[in-house]
Amino acid sequence: MSKAAEIDIASVSKIYGTTTAVHAISLKIPAGTYCCLLGPSGCGKTSTLRMIAGHESISSGDVRLGNTVVTDLPPAKRGTAMMFQSYALFPHLDLVDNVAFSLKMKGVDKDERRTKAVDMLRLMQLEAYATRRPAQLSGGQQQRVALARALITDPEALLLDEPLSALDPFLKIRMRAELKKLQTSLGITFVHVTHSQEEAMALADLIVVMNDGRIEQAAHPRVVFEKPATAFVAKFMGDHNVISGRVTQSSGDKLMLSVPAGGDFLATDDGAAGLTDTADIAIRTDHVRIGQPSEKGLGFTGSVSNVEYRGSSVKLSVNGAGIDDFTAILTDAEFFANPVKVGEAIPLSWGREDAIVLGRLKN
């Protein structure tokens, strides 16, 4: 395969009429990285991918692949390949001709392109199916054919538009393992669009969380999960409670937050959030415990509104201190040692290091 290339997105915007789909985003994707663009529908992730690929024009800004500015280059000249959500396989062609199609369009000799196509099918463990048509394959096999067709041009970066969305849950798990293994063995840059937090966490070296055409956070999956940058990231990634309120005290690394018609909450503040009179804090759901807090602001007493058994864990939803649906995830052993019921008043608590102050994007 070709050498992997860094992708540099510099102040790129996409405007459709009076609607701005992508707001002057900047991002560096290191060479050889598996990057996931993650966010809800309409956040701008697919538009961003299509601008990298050259299938969507850029309203302003530049895209650089390696040392080359590719902003105005057609897709075939960029050194990228794109795997579409629908796979877009030709039903009347066998697998060899499907995979070799882009080489045929480039005028590559028939024997040469078919030999390379068979090599790509062998890489995907599909050599035995070379003479079959796409309709004779399973969904996972069709996906691997689409991958082979994208990779046959030796791209410096492979762009994937929700490649697992059409697969059943069990096949998704297997195919994402194959994608990660393939990216590791090829060593090229992968940029993968998804709305699945689980998928992004499992695959990515770099997660880029997008919302309303902006990048909320770009970091390693562990950083995104453990230290979400904004309230949106904390809520979208899940497994965090977000408390919003008015700052009543801020000194050193300590911040006190007051919830309207509710309680006061303490959080660790490193000053990076740049807050003024209001703030958001996040507390991981699996760090919440039943019990009295060790100091003021590190818990509250509320009423259990729901108990959800999940096998290895139990999810509690609690209302109190001006907060609705505050979540605690307990191990099954912890819960059943002292079970609680809906309507019961219970104290919840967490450590000071478990409550982090979130930043806010500047519009």
TrEMBL record:
Q: What is this protein called?
A: ABC transporter ATP-binding protein
Q: Where is the ABC transporter domain?
A: 7-237
Q: Which PANTHER family match?
A: SPERMIDINE/PUTRESCINE IMPORT ATP-BINDING PROTEIN POTA, SPERMIDINE_PUTRESCINE IMPORT ATP-BINDING PROTEIN POTA
Q: Which GO terms describe its cellular component?
A: ATP-binding cassette (ABC) transporter complex
The signal peptide here is none
Compartment(s) where it occurs, according to its Swiss-Prot or TrEMBL record: Cell inner membrane
Tell me the Pfam families matching this sequence: ABC_tran, TOBE_2
Gene Ontology MF terms: ABC-type transporter activity; ATP binding; ATP hydrolysis activity
